[in-house]
Every structure is written in C-alpha cells, then in structure tokens.
Amino acid sequence: MQFFLDTADIDSIKKYASWGIVDGVTTNPSIIAKEGVNLEARIKEIAEIVDGPISAEVIATDAEGMIKEGRKIATWHENVYVKVPMTSEGLKAVTVFSAEGIKTNVTLVFSVSQAVMAAKAGATLVSPFLGRLDDISEDGMQLIADIVQVYENYGFQTQILAASIRHPLHVVQAMKIGADIATMPPSIFDKLVAHPLTDKGLAAFLADWEKVKDKQ
Ligand code: G3P
Predict the structure, then answer these.
(1) How far is the CA of 141 from the centre of ligand 1 (A)?
(2) So which residues are the catalytic ones?
(3) Any residues with CB less than 8 A from the CB of 107 and at least 6 apart, and which?
(4) DSSP secondary-structure letter at 129?
(5) Please, are residues 186 and 5 in contact by the beta-carbon 8 Å criterion?
(6) Quick check: helix, strand or coil at residue 177?
(7) How far is the centre of ligand 1, averaged over its atoms, from the C-alpha of 107 (Å)?
(8) If DSSP codes are grouped into helix, strand and coil, which group holds residue 184?
(9) What pLDDT does 55 receive?
(10) What is the pLDDT of residues 33-58, one digit of tens each?
C-alpha cells in the first residue's frame, strides 16, 4: 500500500517526507489555488522532495486541449502523472497518453462503470473519491471494494488510488479491501501515527526512568 500526500504545501511535504513514508503526491486545481502558486513551478519543487508519482491535472475539457496540456505536463519531470477528469473527452486523451507511455491518473471517479472505462482506456491510476460519496450518504468504501473486485475479475492493471480521504479509518479500510494507494491530507498522517496508549506508556517509562537515572 502506498501513501500519497494530497497537498501542494511544501512545508507539509518536507515534514512528512522526512518521516520516510511519502510515496507520492497528488494535486488538483483547488489544491493549487489554495497555495496560490504556479502549477509547473510547484510540481517541479515537489519533485525535488518526493521521489514518486506526482499528479498534475489538466484544465482543458476537450480531448485535443487535454492532450496538448498533458504532453507538456509530462515533460516537467519523469515522475509526473497527468491527471485527467473522468469524461468521454478524458478517455480519448487517456487512450492517446497510454499509447505514448505518458502516465495518467483518472480523477473524479464515483462509480464502478467509470473505473472500468478508465482502465479500458489504459489509465495508470484511477481515483475514486470515497469521502465525497460519504458526504452525500453513499458508501464510498463499497465503491473501492467493488472496483477492487471488478479489476481482479478481469486482470486490469490500473492501480486504485483511494482519494478524498476524511479520516484514518478510511485508510485502514481501504488497505483491508486492497486499494493500491491512499492519498490523504497531511493531518491524516499525524492521526495514523497517534495513539493515546503510546503517549501514556511513554510518559510512564520516562517517569520510571527518572527514579533510576542516577544509577546509570
Ligand atoms: O485530490 C483529490 C481528492 O483527494 C480530493 O479530496 O477532500 O476535496 O474531497 P476532497
């Protein structure tokens, strides 16, 4: 299971990369807008910190425009994956990128049928947004499970990137189901590490050590 950071915040990326557990980074136009930066410059900056897939999204909505943008994005760094929205125009673009050896991440996926269409077009990654389904009282995790099963049934090579993660249990459940990757906001990394019994146990060890430290 790979862990990606779903952010373009450089300080966060540096912080969690230093833990040795960041396998890649995903961005989208909203994430870039939050940082208020130039996409190309920021993607190149991230590539200096993380040695793994870094997703950068096209803005065009027609296949021709996506292909033009995606080909340019793919030149920024060898680890850059072109993120393409799950539309019929997006499928056309992914088919071209796949033939050209350009890695892709098909995003805004909310159904099994969309995930299958992305895989058939040759997507490298597919991003089901589980949190946004939960937000509207649908079962996002069931979608991940269904995609895992259908991909296994037919031997699709596309990797499943569980996206729109809201809490650590989403990550654990996605791992149990068999998603390949989870991309998550920085705060989730802290929550994956924390446990009150670890804090309590460490405090007790240190307090007890105080009693014998002069004997060391
Ligand atoms: O980057 C795609 C996805 O992870 C976005 O998540 O929280 O905006 O639903 P969210």
Answers:
(1) 15
(2) 83
(3) 28, 55, 57, 83, 84, 85, 86, 127, 129, 163
(4) B
(5) yes
(6) helix
(7) 10
(8) strand
(9) 98
(10) 999 999 999 999 999 999 999 999 99
